[in-house]
Amino acid sequence: MPPTKRKICVMGFRAVGKSTITLQYVDKNCPDTYNPTIENTFQKVIKLQSNKEYATEIIDTAGQDEYSILQKQYSIGIHGYILVYSVTSASSLDVIKVLNDKILNALGTEKIPRVLVGNKSDLEGERQISKEQGQSLANEWDCAFVECSGKNNVNVEEVFKQILMEIDKSQQPEAPQSSGCILM
């Protein structure tokens, strides 16, 4: 059986570590210096415990801010979003909230497969956002949450496993809701 195709978009404020997470996962490599990303696309076949294979296209976007216009290519044909903030930057979490709203508005829906990711968990002394704050926002959005360190490759693989599971979950048909009315 051929692998299931999945298109994943990695988004967040500039310098939160989107490229570090992506490169660490795809190439097992952490860049030494910060070079602002224009946009990169990576291909990787991912196999989950269910022995299901996914041919993923991972779009590593340029950093966004609250004034960025959501580009059409980030809303069409995307199966799921990895929304990254830095645990050392409260403003990066504010940008993620705005980005989340922009994505939902562009897609005209209230729920999309996404993973909220707090990166730079290795910088504990510089932390501005607690793990509980991240988890609370993920609960509010009804999405997965992972704290990771792209630099040290801690929980990076988990980020990509979670987004694939969120996408699969969203594609399951929901059980019909009983309204209590009987039509005859």
Textual characterization of the structure:
- The chain has 184 residues and is α/β, with parallel strands linked by helices.
- It has a single domain (4-170), classed as P-loop containing nucleotide triphosphate hydrolases (Rossmann fold).
- The chain is built from four helices and six strands.
- The protein has a six-stranded mixed sheet, sandwiched between helices.
- Helix 3 links the parallel strand 5 (114-119) and strand 6 (144-147).
- The termini are far apart.
- The mean pLDDT is 87.
What brief labels describe this structure?
184 residues, alpha/beta, Rossmann fold, 6-stranded mixed sheet, 6 strands, globular
Chain-wise SSE layout:
Elements: E1 4-12, H1 18-27, E2 39-47, E3 53-61, E4 80-86, H2 90-107, E5 114-119, H3 131-141, E6 144-147, H4 156-170
Parallel strand pairs: 1-3, 1-4, 4-5, 5-6
Antiparallel strand pairs: 2-3
